[in-house]
Amino acid sequence: MGRIIEAPGAVDARLGARLAELRAQHGWSLGELAERSGVSRSTLSRAERAEISPTASLLNRLCAVYGRTMSQLLSEVEAEPVPLVRAADQPVWEDRASGFRRRSVSPPHAGLRGELVEGRLGAGADIAYDRPPVPGLEQHLWVLAGTLDVTAQDTEHRVATGDCLRLRVWGPTRFRCAGPEDARYVLAVVRP
Question: Domains in the chain, start-ordered, CATH in brackets?
Answer without folding.
Answer: 8-75 (1.10.260.40), 87-190 (2.60.120.10)
